[in-house]
């Protein structure tokens, strides 16, 4: 059984990490110091809360502990006098209320981090790391880059903020649209990490998905006429509607075609489609709207056989024109395979080897298409390759199950030989 104090620290990490880090950044102007002192505060909480009890206001306790640790670090620094004078200045009268109109603390912090002086990928990565507590490894996998490369990207972003003197504050309301694309990217990747965790025993982190949906609702309330915000809200609702059917009680993954569609959250589906229609009616379809339209095709199909795969393939063609990422091309290959046959999908996969060298879903997709064709030896080889790359326990279980199935099925002759 989990210790109550440890559970309280874990909950505080989810709820308070970003706020504590942001407070320390505002006070010290030093991103690394803020993260280190916040981590120290959580370490002290693990040591003290089991004996002292969980405080009534965990966030305030953690902020005070982190602030005190930062002050001690500054006092021990080589520029003690100047830093303390700076500290006194920063802890003087508080800034007046900002004119942004954003009242949600976490969303305010995300907009603050997404400064237009930084490259868009750096903005998104920095926000995910600093304010939402994702690890550098998790962010690297989301961007399909090596962990050391992502670590360097984060270092460069922090250095640019420091050297350029970029202020850590939210812009006024009329400048928010300059940062909206970056903010949407943060929320989208946050949802993806919850919807399909890149590491660990559980493929679904409902807390991250729910937080992403909440943040998107707040954004939609602020900018209800932005079609991409509306499209993202539709996408997240449609995807999350399947959350209770994506794994069985044993924690094993259930493919979309085998899920019990009567258990999908049809209230969320109805709301998602309404938002999608409102967005598309504005006549400026963007990537999130197109992805929501794809999700709607799945959500409205009464049975797997009713899925409009030609329409999904056409939507992926359009999405690939707007965002030609390797993941989009992989999903497009699956849609083409379902619409036109496995051979058509396999032909498209050949072009993705160099772009997705360590992505387990590429060999897993190849294995599935080969299995559908009856080429079981080749499919088994691809499943084994996918197994070496898969990071989550449910992914490995699913791939192992598929691999074991092939040992009991005879090879289908290739009609071309």
From TrEMBL:
UniProt family annotation: Belongs to the sigma-70 factor family. ECF subfamily.
Protein name per Swiss-Prot or TrEMBL: RNA polymerase sigma factor
Limits of the DUF6596 domain: 179-279
GO biological process, one term: DNA-templated transcription initiation
Keyword Aminoacyl-tRNA synthetase: no
Species annotation: Actinomadura spongiicola
Keyword Transcription regulation included in the entry's annotation: yes
Domain RNA polymerase sigma-70 region: 19-78
Keywords assigned by UniProt, alphabetized: Sigma factor, Transcription, Transcription regulation
């Amino acid at each position: 059984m989990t210790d109550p104090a440890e559970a309280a620290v874990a909950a505080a990490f989810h709820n308070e990490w970003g706020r504590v880090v942001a407070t320390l950044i505002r006070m010290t102007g030093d991103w690394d110091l803020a993260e280190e002192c916040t981590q120290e505060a959580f370490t002290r909480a693990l040591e003290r809360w089991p004996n002292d009890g969980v405080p009534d206001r965990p966030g305030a306790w953690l902020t005070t502990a982190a602030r005190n640790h930062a002050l001690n670090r500054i006092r021990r620094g080589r520029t003690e006098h100047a830093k303390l004078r700076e500290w006194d200045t920063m802890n003087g009268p508080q800034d007046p209320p900002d004119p942004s109109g954003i009242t949600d603390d976490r969303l305010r912090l995300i907009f603050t981090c997404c400064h237009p002086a930084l490259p868009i990928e750096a903005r998104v990565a920095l926000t995910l790391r600093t304010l939402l507590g994702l690890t550098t490894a998790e962010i690297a996998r989301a961007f399909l880059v090596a962990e050391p490369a992502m670590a360097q990207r984060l270092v460069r972003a922090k250095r640019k903020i420091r050297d350029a003197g970029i202020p850590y504050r939210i812009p006024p309301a009329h400048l928010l649209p300059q940062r909206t694309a970056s903010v949407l990217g943060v929320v989208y990747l946050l949802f993806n990490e919850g919807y399909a965790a890149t590491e660990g025993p559980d493929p679904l982190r409902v807390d991250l998905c729910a937080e992403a949906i909440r943040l998107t609702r707040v954004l939609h309330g602020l900018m209800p006429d932005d079609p991409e915000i509306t499209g993202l809200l539709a996408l997240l609702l449609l995807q999350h509607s399947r959350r209770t059917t994506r794994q069985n009680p044993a924690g094993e993954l259930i493919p979309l075609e085998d899920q019990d569609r009567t258990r999908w959250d049809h209230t969320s589906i109805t709301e998602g489609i309404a938002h999608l229609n409102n967005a598309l009616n504005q006549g400026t379809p963007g990537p999130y709207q197109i992805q929501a339209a794809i999700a709607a095709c799945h959500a409205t199909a009464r049975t797997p056989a009713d899925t409009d795969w030609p329409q999904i393939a056409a939507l992926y063609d359009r999405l690939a024109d707007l965002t030609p990422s390797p993941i989009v091309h992989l999903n497009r290959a699956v849609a083409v395979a379902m619409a036109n046959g496995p051979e058509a999908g396999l032909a498209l996969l050949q072009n993705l080897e160099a772009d997705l060298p360590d992505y387990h879903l590429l060999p897993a997709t190849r294995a599935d298409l080969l299995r559908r064709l009856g080429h079981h030896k080749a499919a088994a080889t691809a499943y084994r390759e996918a197994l070496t790359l898969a990071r989550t326990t449910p992914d490995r279980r699913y791939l192992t199950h598929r691999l074991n199935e092939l040992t009991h099925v005879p090879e289908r002759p290739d009609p071309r030989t």
